[in-house]
């Protein structure tokens, strides 16, 4: 520890007589002075305020929309372990899926057969 005293800053006497209550604002109202909801609603209506709260409407008895058919699980043990992601049009994906489903093939098998057909048709051109 140090044996040196701090140098006086020159305002010690003022701190002795400091009263924080003299500087604080007087509290006239309690902290929770919210108006009643009925009074607030009347004041809002009188000033032309339009509420953003949703209006509770009577539910319309409508027939529920038909649920989409659940997707068929396409999991098989095939030994294929390489993933190939492509972006294409929705119509092409639907056509590819329809062909694979009609033949009973998984996507991997359908892709391999499509590749074989393309090679037969166009040859295996290497660049």
Question: If you had to describe this structure to a student in words, what would you say it looks like?
Answer:
With 127 residues, the chain is mainly alpha-helical. Helices cover 39% and strands 0% of the residues. The chain contains five helices and no strands. It has helices at 12-16, 20-23, 37-47, 90-103, 107-122. The longest helix is centred in the last third of the chain and has 16 residues, at 107-122. The radius of gyration is 39 Å and the shape is elongated.
Tally of DSSP helical segments: 5
| Shape category | elongated
Helix share bin: 25-40%
- How many β-strands, per DSSP? 0
Instruction: Report how far apart the termini are.
Output: 82 Å
Mean pLDDT metric: 82
Q: What topology emerges from the helices and strands here?
A:
Elements (H helix, E strand, L loop, with lengths): L11 H5 L3 H4 L13 H11 L42 H14 L3 H16 L5
What descriptive keywords fit this protein?
127 residues; elongated; single chain; mainly alpha
């Amino acid at each position: 520890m140090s044996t040196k005293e701090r140098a006086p800053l020159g305002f010690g006497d003022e701190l002795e007589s400091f009263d924080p209550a003299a500087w604080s604002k007087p509290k006239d109202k309690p902290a929770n002075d919210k108006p009643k909801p009925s009074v607030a609603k009347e004041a809002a209506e009188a000033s032309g305020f339009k509420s953003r709260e949703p209006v509770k409407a009577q539910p319309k008895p409508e027939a529920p929309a038909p649920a989409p058919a659940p997707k068929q699980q396409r999991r098989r043990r095939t030994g294929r372990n390489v993933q190939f992601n492509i972006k294409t049009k929705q119509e092409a994906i639907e056509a590819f899926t329809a062909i694979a489903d009609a033949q009973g093939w998984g996507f991997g098998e359908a892709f391999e057969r499509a590749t074989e057909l393309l090679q037969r048709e166009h040859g295996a051109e290497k660049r």
